[in-house]
Design goal:
By secondary structure, the protein is an alpha+beta fold. The chain has three domains: 2-129, Butyryl-Coa Dehydrogenase, subunit A, domain 1, CATH 1.10.540; 135-242, Beta Barrel (Butyryl-CoA Dehydrogenase, subunit A, domain 2); 247-390, Butyryl-CoA Dehydrogenase, subunit A, domain 3 (Up-down Bundle), CATH 1.20.140. The protein is built from 14 helices and ten strands. The strands form three sheets. Strands 1-4-5-8 form a four-stranded mixed beta sheet. Strands 2-3-7-6 form a four-stranded antiparallel beta sheet, covered by helices on one side. Strands 9-10 form a two-stranded antiparallel ribbon. The protein starts with a helix and ends with a helix. The model is unreliable at 1-10 (pLDDT under 50). Flavin-adenine dinucleotide binds next to strand 1, strand 3 and helix 14.
Length: 394
């Protein structure tokens, strides 16, 4: 052991597998909040497929909504790790509610924080962090999902305004948002890399309409189709430089994948806890079903999957916070955690037997909610493409 310590030191390796005291306290505080303040709202939110909007200001006031941002903007200064802790704990209670909070602190505001000017930060980021304004991010279109460069939305500059025309689909917080960061071509001839720009569109802008989409999963996480018909926004609403929107979008998505992975982790953890409890309580052939080796092994593999997903996610978040390259790790975390959520929720259904299939069983909700994990914010196939490129296959 002493020899190993010496070797490790001589390599200069520093491995620290612990959250800091501050992170541990934050995790506990979010967990308590989720249990006391979010859990009681879940049944109604699931039944009506609506986000409980009162949570935004409540979480914002406590600094729980967007923990990653620095205190000068009202955040908790806890970086991406803080965001992941929040999303994981909220998702443990409900995936749809985690979607709304995750987008506000993540893809809905990220470009404004990183590329926006001070005025935009004060006008949009600060109220979003406080839960006074709800944010959304509009990239996907009916003909442009995985292939984001294929977007057809355009923004034409006229008399000091950008006039936006196009349709966005599957936009989280689309029905409830106060503003949305929208991707549009300002010059198609320059291609995506130089021709796409990002704009902030406020909900009351003439020509901006939204309609709710109905999903069988993540029901409180409201999703909408947005249309822009001659929707004119002031030129001050351009984020960063004109034509640089695509690289900004990629930055947003790389970070978003890490938070998305932590949402899958929260869901998978909840399903595992439910399966473990049920398997220890349900008796068949005179003993708890957890004792049958087939179930014991299922639960052992679930525990292992959770542990592996946790390390991938928090390592990627740590890299992000250190400003170190994290594209590969973020894609790996997203891919792995979403598949873990799928596996664990499927096995949970099996452990619940027939009871899992009833409408009021928690197992069926976990099973439904896991279905979006491998699709949203970049499908599993796209994550594999990203990883392939990162390991040198072009
Ligand atoms: C609940 C929900 C919330 C969402 N929230 C937002 C949001 O807030 N903002 C936003 O902009 N978007 C959002 N999206 C959109 C989401 O990111 C897209 O659905 C996703 O990127 C996939 O696009 P698509 O659905 O058009 O599928 P497609 O791109 O049509 O893909 C269909 C299938 O083909 C596969 N495929 C496509 N291209 C390739 C390829 N090159 N190689 C191998 N396989 C490929 C895919 O992996 C998939 O299996 C949301 C979607 C959902 C369902």
């Amino acid at each position: 052991m002493r020899r190993l310590d010496k070797t490790v030191r001589s390599w200069g390796v520093k491995l620290d597998f612990e959250f800091s005291e501050e992170q541990k306290m934050f995790k506990q505080a979010i967990r308590d909040f989720a249990e006391k303040e979010i859990s009681p709202l879940v049944d109604e939110a699931e039944r009506t497929a609506t986000f409980p909007l009162q949570l935004f200001p409540k979480m914002g006031e406590l600094g729980y909504l967007c923990p990653r941002y620095p205190p000068e903007y009202g955040g908790a200064g806890m970086g991406k790790i803080g965001d992941c802790i929040m999303v994981e704990e909220v998702a443990y209670v409900n995936v749809g509610i985690a979607a709304g909070t995750m987008v506000t602190g993540g893809i809905g505001t990220s470009a404004i924080y990183v590329r926006g000017n001070e005025e935009q930060k004060q006008k949009y980021l600060v109220p979003a962090i406080k839960g006074q304004k709800i944010a959304a991010f509009g990239l996907t279109e009916p003909n442009a999902g995985s292939d984001a460069a294929a977007i057809e939305t355009t923004a034409v500059k006229k008399n000091g305004k950008y006039v936006i025309n196009g349709t966005k689909i599957f936009i989280t917080n689309g029905t409830t948002c106060d503003f949305v960061c929208v991707a549009a071509y300002t010059d198609k001839s320059k291609g995506a890399g130089r021709g796409v720009s990002l704009f902030i569109v406020e909900k009351d802008t003439p020509g901006f309409k939204r309609s709710k989409l109905h999903k069988f999963c993540s029901r409180p996480g409201e999703t909408a189709e947005l249309t822009f018909e001659d929707c004119a926004v002031p030129e001050e609403n351009l984020i960063g430089e004109e034509g640089r929107g695509f690289p900004y979008i990629m930055e947003v998505l790389y970070g978003g994948r890490i938070s998305h992975a932590s949402r899958s982790l929260g869901l998978a953890r909840a399903a595992y806890d439910a399966a473990l409890k049920y398997a220890q309580e349900r008796v068949q052939f005179g003993q708890p079903i957890a004792k049958f080796q087939t179930n014991t092994f299922k639960l052992a593999r679930m525990a292992m999957d959770l542990e592996a997903a946790r390390w991938l996610i928090y390592y990627a978040a740590w890299l992000y916070d250190q400003n170190q390259p994290h594209v590969k790790e973020a894609a790996m975390a997203k891919l792995f955690a979403s598949e873990v959520a799928t596996r664990i929720t499927t096995e949970t259904m099996q452990i619940y037997g027939g009871y899992g299939l009833t409408e009021d069983s928690i197992a069926q909700r976990y099973f439904r909610d896991a279905r979006l994990a491998t699709i949203t914010e970049g499908t599993s196939e796209i994550q594999q493409l990203v990883i392939s490129r990162e390991i040198g296959i072009r």
